[in-house]
Amino acid sequence: VEENGGSLIAIHGRTKEQRYSGEADWDAIAEVKSLVKIPVIGSGDIKTVSDIQRMRQYTNCDAVMIGRAAIANPWIFSGLDRGQVSPEQLQKTVREHLQKSIQFYGEEDGQRLFRKYAVQYLLLRTLDRAARKEILKQRPSGEFLDILNQIYSRYECVAPS
Question: Which domains does the chain have, with CATH numbers?
């Protein structure tokens, strides 16, 4: 890549066969970094702020990419782990995200597309089946926010492990 003019390399430390399972191979990222002069971006198993620091130290990569873990914790980009986010900030973010989704996609599609994020924000493992069903039902956005508020009052929002 480098010898053909590539200006950086981004590596997700998983094989196609692994998909979302197993551990990312940070050794592979470190090996590539040691062999090239261009910047290397590492990705895989980054869920917390300390994971960012650990990857950078372990691989010597120039930057880190964060993927699916950012859905449940978008605050990681501000240097905050999920457990550092107040319930009020969580609710504010959920409301803003829903409003922006509706503005961009329209009422029906915006809410439909947002539902998967709502479940992640609330962390699926803390919700019973009935609460998950309520979040995933299609309804007007005002009603949807009422349901979310009811769920917030019943469940403690906990940090992912």
Answer: 2-67 (no CATH), 83-154 (1.10.1200)
